[in-house]
Design brief:
alpha/beta, 5-stranded parallel sheet, 9 helices, 46% helix
Length: 270
């Protein structure tokens, strides 16, 4: 089917972590000319700045558990001035904060997430994107809708990938990520070359630090408590919602594409 690259401004691909979002993202990239903007990739790019720095301290020294918040950025800079170059200081602080939450298996707070996402979204002129992993809360959903409406762009549809929790946990534990080009593999369903190398760029793949059973269970609960209300809010504001099966009986690229195209046609989006 011939589809214009301008068919969509933005598509939201949503679902629990490990539900099977990436194969749907791949279709929108290959067939509709959209580019994936994943909060996971964004966060990891900021965390990479932290990991490649000379910082060797304990991240917990910057967090006040009684107030459930970090010290001020000004205080951060005083502590870090002898270790971190001023040119990367702001991004380093953002990365350090993101790393704290992610390594504990929690969502990054709305204020920090919106700041990072909004900056990246603006760089793409608010269109031509597959939003993956955002929004995750009502606050983020409201922020996104205001950004889109205020910048003359559309949120064309929400693709909700559904799957069972036990299937998600088993699938995600076997997931591997390329730290260089962000390609996603699975030790059983889509194995990397020789079991450990990216088939695209040859980099050795890694297991995400938050892909453990305990942290997955935390994320699954947070999805039900926080993300589903955000999805329902956006759907209630008129954004078409398409539910797809993350665990198709015959799971092939063609089967994924056919199911997605059928749903888009039923909603009169293509």
């Amino acid at each position: 089917m011939s589809v214009s690259p301008s068919t969509f401004d933005n598509i939201l691909v949503m679902g629990k972590s490990g539900a099977g979002k990436q194969p749907r993202v791949d279709v929108f990239e290959s067939d509709f000319g959209l580019k994936q903007l994943s909060t996971g990739h964004i966060f990891r790019s900021f965390m990479k700045i932290v990991n490649e720095s000379a910082f060797e301290g304990d991240i917990n020294q910057f967090f006040n558990p009684k107030l459930h918040s970090f010290i001020s950025d000004a205080e951060f800079k005083v502590v870090l001035s002898s270790q971190i170059d001023d040119s990367v200081m702001d991004d380093f602080i953002l990365g350090l904060k993101a790393e704290y939450y992610i390594k504990n298996g929690n969502y990054v707070p709305d204020k920090l997430t919106n700041k990072i996402f909004g900056s990246c979204y603006a760089q793409h002129n608010y269109k031509g994107l597959i939003l993956d992993g955002y929004p995750r809360t009502m606050v983020q959903a409201e922020f996104l809708l205001n950004l889109a409406n205020g910048n003359g762009t559309r949120l064309n549809a929400i693709i909700l990938v559904e799957n069972e929790d036990d299937i998600i946990i088993n699938r995600t534990i076997g997931r591997r990520i390329c730290p260089n080009c962000n390609s996603v593999f699975h030790v059983e369903f889509k194995p990397p070359k020789n079991g450990k190398f990216c088939t695209k760029c040859g980099t050795e793949v890694i297991t995400r630090s938050d892909d453990t059973k305990e942290k997955l269970q935390t994320r699954l609960k947070e999805f039900e408590d926080k993300t589903m209300p955000a999805i329902n809010y956006l759907a209630g504001r008129g954004i078409p919602l398409l539910k797809v099966n993350g665990n198709l009986p015959i799971f092939t690229e063609e089967a994924v594409k056919q199911e997605l195209y059928l749903g888009l046609k039923e909603l009169h989006l293509i």
